[in-house]
Amino acid sequence: MKWLERQRIRYTLNHYPIPLDVWEGQLQTSDLFRGLTAVERAHLRELATLFLHRKTLNGVQGLTLSTEMAVAVAAQACLPILKLGLDYYDGWVEVIIYPHTFRVARDRTDATGVVSHEALALRGESWSRGPVILSWDDIVTDMAGFRSGHNVVVHEFAHKLDMLNGRANGMPPLHPNMVRQQWTKAFSDALEHLEQQLVHHRHPGINPYAATAPAEFFAVVSEYFFTDPLTLRHHYPVVYDQLVLFYRQVPADR
Ligand SMILES: [Zn+2]
User: What DSSP string runs through the chain?
Assistant: First the structure.
């Protein structure tokens, strides 16, 4: 099976590679990929090629996805797993892309049992064993780097990594060389620090949305890790170090 799988991967890479001009063009549109070595860029192109073969990308509400758009999504989605492998995205197939922020309606039950009907405007959403949903407008804005520390693709795919071992709770499956207690302490101390900053109306070092839940904290610091690693390392160096171990990348050195 392993041999057959390797042959299949080889075949896909040889026969359906992302065209080099499209690939280079997309990498140039975002600072996200700056500082990657030639070997890393080539490996990322292979991962993105396989990603586009294994996943189905669907534009909805009239959005037609061009090759360039699909490659932009695939390249950003594969950056976090550059040193982990595409298996980290196993168990689901669909990426749904709306033209703009999309609205969802939900029933929510609070602690007293009251059910309220909410309408929310979302930039992205990630379902356990289900699709990743994204807004193309926000993908473009984030690629241009207009919002420091923001990347909706990295955010939603970080949730996918978090959900590999169950519910999204800010604890993805750690590697054997990592210590669970160190991860928990780093993240809970940082989350508490951020909550205190907000309670005392101090200007937070990172996007305050991170304080909404441990899962959101992990997704938001992952966004910083890849788009603005120096800010993350400045405010939460211990969290940064844990992410270096988890993602097996050192973006602050790029
Ligand atoms: Zn989120």
Answer: -HHHHHHHHHHHHHHSPPPHHHHHHHHHT-GGGTT--HHHHHHHHHHHHHHHHHSEEEE-TTPPPPHHHHHHHHHHHHSTTTTT-GGGGTT--EEEEESS-EEEEEEEE-TTS-EEEEEEEESEEE-TTS-EEEEHHHHHHHHTT-STT--HHHHHHHHHHHGGGSS-SS-PPPPTTS-HHHHHHHHHHHHHHHHHHHHTTPPPSS-GGGGG-HHHHHHHHHHHHHH-HHHHHHH-HHHHHHHHHHH---GGG-
